[in-house]
Design goal:
Layout lengths: L3 H6 L1 E4 L7 E4 L1 H4 L2 H15 L6 E5 L3 H12 L2 E5 L9 E8 L2 E8 L8 E9 L3 H12 L4 E9 L16 E7 L1
Helix pairs in contact: 3-4
Length: 176
């Protein structure tokens, strides 16, 4: 989609968190009311007819648009969090990162087989966090799963989308 207003307001920070990485800072989109409206409207149009019953927001920047879209769609929000942040019984999925292992967790009672689930995060790069979250959601055996990201990074040789080829419908609002 690459809306010009969104692209113009997306901040890129070179060499963060380490040299050679161009960090895409989604917070510049969140602080701009016009950008928030554009993102919410675009996401609503993508999913208004899909029967979404739960949106899984991925820690932590994924929480913002997950909650906003859930309000507009009239569905629930489920949090996919880092270890130790959820108070009830959880299921977890670990995944490898370039600098170690990370884990995402969800409450064991957050989704059921009657749900149509949208997984939302701010960014798709290598796909590690997204794949782990997808595996968690799949554990619940919902009717349908969709995935959405604000930004997909492909210009640095990253191919996170390839992890989901033929498995789940993935949409992004911007590709950089």
């Amino acid at each position: 989609m690459n809306n010009k207003i969104l692209m113009d307001n997306l901040r890129c920070i070179p060499d963060f968190p380490r040299k050679g990485i161009n960090f895409r800072d989604v917070t510049t989109l969140y602080k701009n009311a016009e950008c928030m409206k554009i993102m919410l409207d675009e996401m609503y149009n993508l999913y208004k007819d899909k029967g979404i019953t739960k949106i899984v927001g991925v820690e932590s920047r994924g929480f913002v648009m997950a909650a906003a879209l859930a309000g507009k769609l009239g569905c629930g929000v489920v949090l996919a969090r880092k270890p130790g942040k959820l108070p009830a019984t959880v299921i977890k999925e670990s995944f490898s990162k370039e600098y170690g292992v990370d884990t995402v967790e969800m409450h064991l009672d957050s989704i059921d087989e009657n749900d149509v689930v949208l997984i939302h995060d701010d960014l798709l790069a290598t796909g590690g966090t997204a794949k782990a979250t997808y595996k968690l959601v799949k554990h619940f055996n919902p009717k349908q799963i969709y995935m959405n990201f604000i930004i997909e990074i492909t210009d640095e040789g990253l191919h996170g989308r390839d992890l989901f080829d033929g498995i789940v419908d993935v949409t992004t609002l911007m590709v950089v």
